[in-house]
């Protein structure tokens, strides 16, 4: 059996000490309690602060557990933060691809659209921000659902004859998404429409949402009805760019 990871043990010890100190503790206090150098403690605290588990008081001298630590079952990333980091990249993807672009995240078993860019052709279109999509029938949903099995829907509703409603087949589809790193949809939610999406990873590699484009099959797929490789590349690059912004600015 492999041994334990020392850095995680130390971080857990820091969290335990902070949980027992409602008024917070300073770097020196934690270092003395754990027998660690101040630089080591400061590095642990900085990381825990970045992931939202600890906060500093106004003076900056003491640390305490954040409210987010008590809500680990909830999404740690605010939807407005995801949207703000995605706006420029999503707009660029829509401009380059000529298709509708959406950014979404899983909320109570549905994909909530937090940002929507219209197809740049001046046609009449409805804004989707705030609406929800079925995760099993859309590329945007599958790109997130593949990494969160706890959110997998129990009742797989059919929207078209191509919708995957067999749990086993859906499991196989999601395994494919994980292995290649992107998801597709072919008339599974709406007839004559297809989509491509890729997961957005936050700190630690946690998938916090997805970005994808959608359009008519003849534009999304090639002559052999395969999702176009150039569009897949664009979507994946956009997801990676958003992820870098999230990690750099968190």
Summarize the structure in words.
This protein is an alpha+beta fold and 250 residues long. The chain folds into two domains: 6-73, Arc Repressor Mutant, subunit A (Orthogonal Bundle), CATH 1.10.10; 75-246, GAF domain (Beta-Lactamase, 2-Layer Sandwich). The chain is 40% helix and 19% strand. The chain is built from eight helices and eight strands. The protein has helices at 6-19, 27-34, 38-50, 79-97, 139-145, 167-180, 217-220, 229-249; strands spanning 54-56, 63-65, 100-107, 110-117, 132-133, 183-186, 193-201, 207-216. Helix 1 (6-19) crosses helix 3 (38-50).
Topology, element by element:
Blueprint: H1 6-19, H2 27-34, H3 38-50, E1 54-56, E2 63-65, H4 79-97, E3 100-107, E4 110-117, E5 132-133, H5 139-145, H6 167-180, E6 183-186, E7 193-201, E8 207-216, H7 217-220, H8 229-249
Antiparallel strand pairs: 1-2, 3-4, 3-8, 4-5, 6-7, 7-8
Protein name: Glycerol operon regulatory protein
Organism: Kribbella speibonae
InterPro entries: GAF-like_dom_sf (IPR029016), HTH_MetabolicPath_Reg (IPR050707), Tscrpt_reg_IclR_C (IPR014757), Tscrpt_reg_IclR_N (IPR005471), WH-like_DNA-bd_sf (IPR036388), WH_DNA-bd_sf (IPR036390)
């Amino acid at each position: 059996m492999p041994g334990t990871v020392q850095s995680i043990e130390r971080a857990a010890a820091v969290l335990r000490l902070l949980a027992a100190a409602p008024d917070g503790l300073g770097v020196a206090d934690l270092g003395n309690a754990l027998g660690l150098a101040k630089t080591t403690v400061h590095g642990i605290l900085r990381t825990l602060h970045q992931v939202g588990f600890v906060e500093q008081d106004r003076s900056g001298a003491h640390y305490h557990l954040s409210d987010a630590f008590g809500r680990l079952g909830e999404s740690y990333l605010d939807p407005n933060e995801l949207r703000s980091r995605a706006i420029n990249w999503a707009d660029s993807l829509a401009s380059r691809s000529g298709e509708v672009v959406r950014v979404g995240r899983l909320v109570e078993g549905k994909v909530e659209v937090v940002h929507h860019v219209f197809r740049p052709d001046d046609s009449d279109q409805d804004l989707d921000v705030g609406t929800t999509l079925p995760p099993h029938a859309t590329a945007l949903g599958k790109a997130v659902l593949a990494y969160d099995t706890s959110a997998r829907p129990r009742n797989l509703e059919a929207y078209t004859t191509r919708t995957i409603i067999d749990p086993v087949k859906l499991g196989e589809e999601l395994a494919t998404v994980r292995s290649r790193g992107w998801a597709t949809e072919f008339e599974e939610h709406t007839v004559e429409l297809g989509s491509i999406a890729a997961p957005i990873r936050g700190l630690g590699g946690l998938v916090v949402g997805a970005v994808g484009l959608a359009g008519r099959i003849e534009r999304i797929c090639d002559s052999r009805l395969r999702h176009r490789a150039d569009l897949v590349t664009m979507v994946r690059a956009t997801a990676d760019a958003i992820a870098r912004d999230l990690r750099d600015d968190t």
